[in-house]
Design brief:
This protein has about 140 residues and is α+β, with helices and mostly antiparallel strands. It has helices at about 10-20, 80-85, 90-100, 110-115, 125-140; strands at about 35-40, 50-55, 60-65, 70-75, 100-105. The protein has five helices and five strands; from the N terminus they run H-E-E-E-E-H-H-E-H-H. Helix 1 runs antiparallel to helix 5 and helix 2 packs antiparallel against helix 3.
């Protein structure tokens, strides 16, 4: 399987295919939130990467482009976004937040509620989350 730099156009295309494959399989309720995300200084392309997280339809949707009506906007550098989404390293993310590498504007409570949500407890949901994470890791270049 080909690997691509995290958030590169090729990676995003592969991640969308994985998302489409797993769409509708999760039954875990998610906290409704609309977040615009700005990733600064990616090691490819020119300029920042603009994306969004939207859970208002009952499922987690992450994609490129900004929403017109976000409740909050999170801006961070590429390295921190990698630690959050690929490494899933909460210690690095907390350190980045404390160092001011994560800027949150808008309804901060929405982000805190989303970030503090309980992980799934259903064994099938846990396995599904592990499978998705594994598939995303397989397409992500180190």
């Amino acid at each position: 399987m080909a690997q691509h730099p995290f958030l590169s156009p090729e990676w995003i295309s592969e991640a969308r295919a994985i998302r489409d494959e797993f769409e509708g399989r999760s039954t875990t309720a998610v906290e409704p939130v609309k977040v615009n995300v700005v990733i600064t200084a990616p090691p490819f392309g020119q300029g920042d990467i603009e994306g969004h997280v939207d859970t208002t339809a009952g499922a987690l949707t992450i994609d490129i482009g900004h929403l017109d009506d976000p409740e909050v906007t999170v801006t961070t550098d590429y390295e921190t976004s990698y630690a959050l989404f690929v490494d899933r390293d909460p210690a690095k993310v907390m350190e980045a937040f404390m160092l001011g590498k994560i800027l949150v504007t808008g309804d901060v409570a929405k982000v805190m509620s989303f970030a503090g949500a309980e992980p799934p407890s259903d064994p099938d949901e846990i396995e599904l989350a592990k499978e998705i994470a594994s598939r995303l890791a397989a397409i992500t270049a180190s």
